[in-house]
Amino acid sequence: MTVDSLVQQAITIRERAYVPYSKFPVGAALLTKSGKVYTGCNIENASYSLTCCAERTAIFKAVSDGETEFTAMAVAADTDRPVPPCGACRQVMSEFFQPDMPIHLTNLQKETKTFLMKELLPFAFQTEDLSESN
Ligand SMILES: O=c1ccn([C@H]2C[C@H](O)[C@@H](CO)O2)c(=O)[nH]1
Ligand SMILES: [Zn+2]
């Protein structure tokens, strides 16, 4: 699986976004260790805060399918710079992505910036932090 193929799948699934409120479609493509790709788009709601971002849609689809090990993700939107994931998605990513996993952020011109998980969310709250109180 090439980076360009993952980026293209993120751009393609973006067309499925349900975005009547923001009119800002986003697509994500998530590669599993086993070589499968799970795609996701953002899904909005009339109660705005219930919106699910593209990144979390892709992750939740994969996890609900029994996949919890990933090797790369691509995220695409129509932005001037490669689209930055929101803070909520970074926290959900950090639950499943290893610190050195690459996340390819892109726009419709395929201008792509690649960050490692640990660069997108340093000092993440993690499961080990719960052990003190349990
Ligand atoms: O990385 C991002 C940034 C924003 N959004 C969505 C949330 C909302 O539906 C719309 C505008 O914020 O874009 C994503 O899906 N992913
Ligand atoms: Zn998000």
Task: Describe the fold and architecture.
The protein is of the alpha+beta class. The chain has a single domain, classed as Cytidine Deaminase, domain 2 (3-Layer(aba) Sandwich). It has a five-stranded mixed β-sheet. The structure holds 2'-deoxyuridine and zinc ion. The site of zinc ion has 6 residues, from helix 3.
Outline the secondary-structure elements.
Blueprint lengths: L2 H11 L12 E7 L4 E5 L12 H11 L5 E8 L9 H10 L5 E6 L4 E5 H4 L14
Parallel strand pairs: 3-4
Antiparallel strand pairs: 1-2, 1-3, 4-5
Rg to the nearest angstrom? 14 Å
Tell me the strand order in the biggest sheet. Answer: 2-1-3-4-5
- N to C succession of SSEs: HEEHEHEEH
CATH superfamily: Cytidine Deaminase, domain 2
When the domains are counted, the total is: 1
Name of the level-1 CATH class: Alpha Beta
Mean pLDDT: 97
Q: How large is the share of residues in beta strands?
A: 15-25%
Structural class, please?
Answer: alpha+beta
Distance between the termini: 41 Å
- Biggest sheet layout: 5 strands, mixed
